[in-house]
Amino acid sequence: MPSLRLGTTAPDFEAQTTKGPIKFHDFIGENWVILFSHPADFTPVCTTELGLVAALQEDFDARNVKVIGLSANELESHEKWIADINEVNNVDLKFPIIADPKREISALYDMLDYQDITNVDGKGIPFTVRSVFIIDPKKAIRLILTYPASTGRNFDEILRVVDSLQLGDKHRITTPGNWKKGDDVIVHPSVSTEEAEKIFPKGVKVVKPYLRLTPSPF
């Protein structure tokens, strides 16, 4: 199985989800997608994480991002778990959750836990770690994050990366550390200062010949 790297095509697969069967590439369509895994249903960190993502649904919609979760349990378990998630977090979870009890998709995306010996099911089969994949409309993987099962994810950071990627695809810019939507951005190194002054009407600040800032095009 080839390694998953930034820029590679996200592997296609068929799966059962809480919103019906899908073929992953068809599900992506012309959208951005966040695929994120969870070790198991009815676990405390996963329950709070999924509630957080459900609460951010409008933020994902505004960015043309479809969210899809994965957990290593049966579909029937997922359905019961969603009721808990909605109750505990006071949300209405709308995105699909993939049922992956045989870990086939988890293995395809290298999500299985090889670190925490307690993160296994009753048969000793590893559950997943907390993986995140951001996939663009061309089906290319643009970000890979892996958190240990014991640590919940920062979805504000994941949204920040989506903003950076989408902005960089539209404009010839990069974003600095801790950048957030609305902050100044960096003129791409391939753009000369002379050209930058023409294509960025809000102005260009030359800090160093290799570091030019311009107000965010957002």
UniProtKB/TrEMBL annotation:
Stored InterPro entries: AhpC/TSA, Peroxiredoxin_AhpC-typ, Peroxiredoxin_C, PRX_1cys, Thioredoxin-like_sf, Thioredoxin_domain
Cellular component annotations (GO), alphabetically ordered: cytosol; mitochondrion
The family this protein is said to belong to: Belongs to the peroxiredoxin family. Prx6 subfamily.
A GO term, aspect molecular function: peroxiredoxin activity
Superkingdom in the source lineage: Eukaryota
Keywords: Antioxidant, Oxidoreductase, Peroxidase, Redox-active center
Residues at the catalytic site: C46
Thioredoxin domain boundaries: 4-167
Keyword Oxidoreductase among record annotations: yes
Organism (species): Umbelopsis vinacea
GO biological process, one term: cell redox homeostasis
Membrane-spanning intervals of the chain: none
Stated name of the protein: Thioredoxin domain-containing protein
Function recorded in the entry: Thiol-specific peroxidase that catalyzes the reduction of hydrogen peroxide and organic hydroperoxides to water and alcohols, respectively.
